[in-house]
Write a structure and sequence with these properties.
Length: 291
């Protein structure tokens, strides 16, 4: 029995995908999509209210000849839940929302409400200024005062920013100078410590010429080749007199040397017995036969 959900299809060896006929669709074909109502609306045919979030099987298409700064606008077709009248709405990238187009009216549009209020206020202000010249003068005075306050606040912000920038640069400069002083003091202290260490090393250690090694016959001294004699570094006591080599050795080394000098030549080794004597076997003479 075959599987219910087949993931791998069988393709025969002579399969050629280029021979499959291509399905030609219209340029602006509609697609069936599942969506929810983006806003609450009322049907213009039967007056049925459709709340926001109601799910529909809608048809989607691209609006020809309309876009917003290169952004495509899509149109959706749904049907009223009561009378099955067609309702259309499309995307509104300008306000990041949707706009009702046909068959229904939106219950509330916030941006239109704001625009209407602003327009009403502007018209009322113009009408009041036309009827009352003193009111127009007061409005112009208030507007000019508001502009002056805005300019003063902007100037204060600029001056504060410039002062903070100068203070920050001065603080950075002082910090840099302080760090340079600290580095200079550290370098001076390090140099003094190194000089003291070198002086102490010169007092404790001394370089003496190395003993000349025996040269083969026919070979001249090393000075003939222009090379200087080898020197070795020897530790000595801090003083004017050079200590001898025996005094430079530790106590344990001196004790070993004294013990070695007191011991004489080693005793000669006994010669090992060879043959049967080495095994402890003694040979006895043959007993004489009595007559």
């Amino acid at each position: 029995m075959s599987e219910r959900k087949v993931l791998n299809k069988y393709f025969p060896p002579d399969f050629d995908p280029s021979l499959i006929p291509r399905r030609r669709q219209p340029k602006n074909s509609q697609q069936v999509v599942r969506l929810m109502a983006p806003f609450s609306m009322r049907c213009n045919t039967c007056g049925e209210y459709i709340y926001k979030g109601k799910k529909f099987n809608a048809r989607k298409e691209t609006v020809e000849g309309e876009d917003y700064y290169g952004i495509k606008i899509f149109r959706f077709y749904i049907k009223c839940t009561l009378c099955s009248a067609e309702i259309t709405f499309k995307t509104d990238p300008k306000n990041t929302d949707y706009a009702a187009e046909h068959g229904a009216s939106r219950n509330f549009e916030p941006w239109r409400e704001e625009k209407a209020v602003e327009e009403e206020d502007r018209l009322a202000k113009l009408e009041e200024e036309e009827n009352n010249p003193m009111k127009a003068l007061e409005n112009r005075t208030v507007d000019s005062k508001r502009e002056m306050d805005i300019l003063d606040a902007l100037q204060d912000i600029r001056a504060r920013n410039a002062r903070n920038e100068r203070i920050g640069q001065t603080g950075d400069l002082l910090d840099r100078l302080h760090m340079e002083e600290i580095e200079t003091e550290e370098d001076r202290e390090r140099k003094l410590a190194e000089e003291e260490d070198e002086k102490l090393v010169r007092e404790v250690f001394s370089k003496v010429p190395a003993p000349a090694a025996s040269t083969p016959s026919g070979a001249g001294p090393s000075g003939d080749n222009g090379t200087s004699a080898e020197v070795i570094t020897v530790k000595r006591k801090a003083g004017a007199q050079e200590p001898d080599l025996q005094s430079l050795l530790p106590d344990s080394a001196r004790a070993l040397l004294s013990v070695a000098s007191s011991i004489g030549a080693p005793a000669p080794k006994r010669k090992k017995l060879e043959g049967k004597g080495a095994l402890g076997i003694k040979l006895k003479g043959k007993s004489k036969v009595k007559s």
